[in-house]
Please model this.
Amino acid sequence: SKVLLTGGSGFIAAHVLKVLLDRGYSVVTTVRSAAKGDQIVAAHGDAVKGRLSYVIVGDIAQEGAFDEAVRSTPPFRYVVHTASPFPTSVDDPVRDLLDPAIKGTTGILKAIKAYAPTVERVVITSSFAAMVGGGKSVGGAPPVYDESAWNPVTWDEAVADKTKSYRGSKTLAERAAWDFVANEKPAFDISTICPPLVFGPVAAEQPFAGLASLNTSNQRIRDIVQGVHVNDTIIHSPGSSLFTDVRDLALAHVRALEVPAAGGQRFFVTTGLYSCKNIVEIVRASHPELASRLPKDLQDDLPADVYGYDNSRAQQVLGIQFRPLEESIADTVTSLLKLGA
Ligand code: NDP
Model:
């Protein structure tokens, strides 16, 4: 079968692409430049010749951006939409985050409905960001998150408060996708994948611009490895105390295409809790040569009242067996050292 994968140059998408190619799919990926497209195709080499190509989609927020990309011969059976900005900071929340996230999502769904009638399922990369603040709390206990949780953030809050803009972009984009399906009743169904902070090795085939522009979610591990925190007594977790590994997440995306029961479902793809103290201890054990770069006496940074999580749907419906934090961190560090950390 043939798959359209948006944002193939990204950290997560590079792993989704590997899983798709390993499982025999033909893939067309969208990228913003020919340079990145050429790099991806070259990196995968002759083994996938004839099964991998790219199309350029410059600005996903633009009306009709995907109208050409969704048309292909032979036609697509599946679409995986990962392209969405996840920067460390933005100037203009609407231009830099909300428009590409929301219009990018509705734009590709509209294009598929209009021009790609053979598409059966669209898997969309959403986020735990679209759930935060919506966890259910019983009797004053910390909330427990599952797929029923929705971030209550509004458009106005996401525009006015830059600390809410990324989470707003993911929440409103995912809502727009479910609304599209409810209102437009397209021939395809959708699945959304909601990961928290994603760790894991950088795929060798990903166009890589250097450690300074490493994907946002691995930056904390990069900083620890590079000795940035050597004198610290506490390192606060960025944003989320939950993580998952990029390889498990990539498999979840592909299983969500393949498993009939995944259609119409949202998946909370999370392994479990982590703390920065855990990360440092794992690095100390897995890479003893880095000891001099690591802080010695860290306090625990996991809040005592941290929320709970329920990842049973991802395990049961998608069959994901999550790899432990130890493996995820050790492999990330090995990857970052190879890249020059
Ligand atoms: P990356 O920054 O590595 O990848 C983002 C991808 O989206 C790149 O291919 C990028 O293209 C593309 N993209 C970003 N903005 C635009 C735009 N305006 N127009 C066209 N393409 C764009 O991040 P990740 O791989 O981490 O993120 C991928 C997806 O996963 C996103 O939807 C993100 O919200 C989601 N996610 C990530 C989490 C994480 O912890 N990493 C957690 C939860 C969700 P280019 O290479 O040209 O910049």
